[in-house]
Amino acid sequence: MTGRSEVPDPSHADDSVYVSVHQPVLGTVLELRIGGSAQVAAAAEERVLATIDEFERRFTVHDPGSELCRWRAGELDRPSADLVAVLAQAERWHRASDGAFHPATAEVSARWRAAATEDLLPTDDELDQLAESLRRLPYEVVDGVLRRTGDSSSVDLNALAKGWIVDRAVAAAMSATGAFPAERPRSVVVNAGGDLVHVGEGSVRVGIEDPRRPHDNAPPLDRVVLAGEALATSGTARRGVRIAGRWYGHVIDPRTARPTSERTRSHRTVCSSSVIAGDAATADAVATVLSVLDPDEGLAFVASMSQVAAASGGVACCIVTDDGEVHVDDRWRAHRPEG
Fold it and tell me: What is the DSSP string of 107-172?
């Protein structure tokens, strides 16, 4: 995991914190930390798992019968408000990032996987054509109405849906009741493979994995404290393809249809980007954008997003580049534990 909860810190020292681990959930390991009585913790855990299961089944691209796949195939003209909401968020992030965030890159990613199987790089002409096809989204949401504007078969929600689902799971956990209706969880931490949210009393200290040493026993690169906030990390540490003896990271720049590792040598490649935001969906989306942008561009993007999201505490970031440099903004520094 790229974000590991280390020290839950409930305000009431006599409260128990119940910890459970489940896998596979959302394709990763799910860790829950719920502060309160055993009864309320069990009820909250049940709600988390049910919420995640429901939305995972509806939004998966691996089941032709899922709501997302049926819409992509043209079999569903009026998808649920939930799916429309996530697609609308993806459209907004695509616009805000000038195309660095894109929810329809499945065809490009598949082409790079095929290149690895063939052990032969795609041609520049082919990649340029793919990049051109990504300049516009194949759908639009206007006044809450979803409309296709092109071939939507490559739309996926991988860069946003997990955080969106975790946000809903946390809300479901906090609405759970224990032995009597007024009893609620005092705190909840949901960590789905690094998409981590803390709500309620107290705080949680989180270790940030060093992408250059992606091993579970390596010391954290940095630590931050979250209180009523979310954290997400995107990076190239563990995934990618090898073609003709060379490694290519899995992060694709939708504007070029090429891995970000293929920038000119004058640019630094982002190994990982960690983002703190008011909700996991925002943290997910911004972390994805920062993995595509140059670090300086990324810091400027976060500053602009912080102005927009000032009411919810803004956005903080930590960007690690392939030359070993760590780039953080002032909001990130403010989240580091004292001492």
Answer: HHHHHHHHHHHHT-PPPHHHHHHHHHHTSS-SEEEETTEEEE-S--TT---TTTHHHHHHHHHHHH
Per-residue pLDDT tens for 123-145?
999 999 999 999 999 999 999 99
Residues ≥6 apart with Cβ < 8 Å to 217: none
Residues 77 and 73: their CA atoms lie apart, in Å, by 10
Record the pTM.
0.91
Nearest to 194 by CA among 282, 274, 288, 305: 274
Taking the C-alpha atoms of residue 332 and residue 219, their distance in angstroms, rounded to an integer, is 19
Nearest Cα to Cα of residue 100 among 216, 270, 217: 270
Q: How far is C-alpha 154 from the geometric centre of its chain's CA atoms?
A: 19
DSSP code string of 227-260: SS-EEEEEESSS-EEEETTEEEES-EETTTTEEG
Question: Vertex 202, ends 200 and 203: CA angle to 5°?
Answer: 100
Q: Tell me the three state secondary structure of residue 97.
A: coil
DSSP per position, 27-52: TEEEEEEEES-HHHHHHHHHHHHHHH
Q: Collapsing DSSP states into helix, strand and coil, what is residue 100?
A: coil
The residue assigned the tokens 């004058």 is 266
Tell me the DSSP string of 60-76: -SS-TTSHHHHHHTTS-
Tell me, rounded to whole angstroms, the distance of Cα 32 from its chain centroid. Answer: 17
